[in-house]
Design a protein that fits this description.
The protein is α+β, with helices and mostly antiparallel strands. It has two domains: 151 residues, Jelly Rolls, CATH 2.60.120; 101 residues, Arc Repressor Mutant, subunit A, CATH 1.10.10. 37% of the residues lie in helices and 23% in strands. It contains nine helices and twelve strands. The strands form two sheets. The protein has a six-stranded mixed β-sheet, covered by helices on one side. Strands 2-9-4-7-10-11 form a six-stranded antiparallel β-sheet, covered by helices on one side. It is globular, with a radius of gyration of 19 Å. It comes from Pseudomonas fakonensis. Pfam families: AraC_binding, HTH_18. This is Helix-turn-helix transcriptional regulator. Keywords: DNA-binding, Transcription, Transcription regulation. InterPro entries: AraC-bd (IPR003313), HTH_AraC (IPR018060), HTH_AraC-typ_CS (IPR018062).
């Protein structure tokens, strides 16, 4: 379920860009195979958006998942790596931080409305050094207005900083169907169940049950988006039944798996 578990993930080169040619800069890429952009940072805002496929963005403090109709907002100077699955159509934006009052806020996943989607697609066709006072410049500012108003959605997974609990979380991300209890993890890591529970709650704001549930459901989105049967996805995610998976999915996202990608 995790991209890190795929057999071959190809390294993607970070674009060499020392300054933005315009306040809004677009990048278009067709990624036919699983790709990883190694950990890096920019002095500008980055919006990672896929019109098809699912993106995973990892930072030192969390993981963020963006299926279609969602995008990852990355503030300036934040270390991050980006994973994409096969057949992903990227439409990324680099944005001057001065355009946004909260540019230096937290990394988050935002909703991409149908209007914003069309604006991004149209702007991606503009020349790099577009006329800021002309039609393309006005289009860029309409797009910026839509991004300022974008709603944050709950498609992020906070990560703990404690080494033992982080090890636990990373192993679960690689094997979401691992059903070991927190007590069993404690025996392996040399810490009590109470200690692990306390650290995880303090550093992520989530209980072990809720953290693992969110991790499993976020990891299931790529397979669901590719049309894999819900029963197969549920079992791969560690659920004992399809009904249990659907109930957890509805609790997390407010809709069933069948409705999620049409939301």
């Amino acid at each position: 379920m995790s991209i890190s578990g795929q057999a071959t993930v190809h390294e993607r080169i970070v674009p060499a860009l020392h300054a933005l040619p315009r306040p809004v800069f677009a990048r278009t890429e067709s990624l036919l195979r699983p790709e990883r952009t190694p950990m890096h940072r920019h002095p500008w805002v980055q919006l990672s958006y896929a019109i098809s496929g699912v993106l995973h963005v990892h930072t030192p403090t969390g993981s963020f998942v963006a299926p279609p109709q969602r995008a990852v907002w990355m503030p300036p100077d934040m270390d991050h790596e980006v994973f994409s699955f096969a057949n992903t159509e990227m439409r990324g934006l680099y944005l001057d931080p001065q355009l946004f009052d909260d540019a230096h806020g937290h990394c988050r996943v935002i909703e991409v409305t149908p209007l914003t989607h069309e604006l991004i697609k149209q702007f991606a066709q503009c020349p790099t050094e577009y006329d800021e006072a002309g039609e393309d410049g006005r289009l860029a500012m309409v797009l910026v207005d839509q991004l300022r108003a974008a709603r944050e959605v709950s498609l992020s997974l906070p990560l703990p900083q404690d080494a033992r609990v982080l090890q636990l979380c990373r192993q679960l991300q690689d094997a979401p169907d691992d059903n070991r209890t927190l007590a069993e993890w404690g025996e392996m890591l040399g810490a009590s169940e109470k200690t692990l529970r306390r650290i995880l709650l303090r550093e992520t704001g989530l209980s072990f049950r809720h953290w693992r549930q969110r991790m499993r459901l976020l990891g299931a989105l790529e397979a669901l988006g590719q049309g894999v049967a819900v029963t197969e996805v549920a079992l791969s995610a560690g659920y004992q039944s399809t009904s249990a998976f659907i109930a957890a999915f509805r609790e997390q996202f407010g809709v069933t798996p069948g409705d999620f990608f049409n939301a």
